[in-house]
Design a protein that fits this description.
elongated; 0% strand; 74% helix; mainly alpha; 213 residues
């Protein structure tokens, strides 16, 4: 068999991939995971009673902007890594922007707060459960993203898993804002980020196992 015959045989029954198939598949997995997490927030943790009032303040949107921007960057990077020739470009570096921005806000908070109150501002009232909650709330989203990506064609499995975990963690943290009443940027920078990093670490471990094709 010549090379031309082999190519013709392999390509004989190929069907064109529908346009935007990647976006639809990832969107489905992400949407199902977000829905499951949203139900978990409402059913297990409960929405904060002053949510409507909080949404009229800057603090709620600073937290949300931080987590959503990280989620967006990680999700785009994951989409690019879902292809065999996927390159993340500058999307991972772009994630430093919200981190540095929130760090600057946290430094401003420290500068305006008496030193004796720094520890209370850092720990808040829920530091013992915050990172754990963010991690656990991200699990359904992570499962949905793994389901989506494993049917595609990633080749950098550790990185793809890490980015999928980071995306899941950031979306989970975004939904956790609906429950969490903490207002300190230093708190969010520490404990929210720790939960997201934990999910990214799980993604690095699971990537080679769950995304192999």
């Amino acid at each position: 068999m010549t090379s031309e015959d082999l190519i013709a045989t392999l390509s004989r029954d190929l069907r064109p991939v529908p346009r935007h198939a990647l976006l639809r598949r990832v969107g489905l997995g992400l949407g199902l995971g977000v829905l499951a997490t949203l139900i978990a927030v409402g059913g297990l943790l409960g929405y904060r009673p002053d949510l409507v009032i909080a949404m009229h303040g800057a603090v709620f949107w600073i937290k949300s902007a931080y987590t959503i921007s990280l989620a967006a960057c990680a999700t785009v990077a994951m989409l690019r890594l879902s292809r065999p020739d996927g390159r993340v470009g500058g999307w991972l570096v772009a994630m430093l922007v919200p981190v540095l921005g929130l760090a600057a806000i946290a430094l401003g908070e420290l500068a305006m707060t008496p030193r004796a109150d720094w520890l209370a501002m850092w720990l808040g009232a829920s530091w013992t459960v915050c990172s754990r909650n963010v991690f656990l709330l991200a699990v359904p989203i992570f499962a949905g993203l793994l389901w989506s990506v494993r049917r595609l064609a990633p080749t950098r499995l550790v990185l793809a898993g890490t980015v999928a975990g980071m995306a899941a963690g950031a979306w989970g943290a975004t939904l956790y804002c609906l429950h969490c009443p903490e207002t300190s940027a230093l708190f969010v920078l520490t404990w929210y980020t720790l939960g997201m990093a934990g999910m990214a670490a799980l993604g690095a471990i699971m990537g080679p196992r769950a995304l192999r094709w």
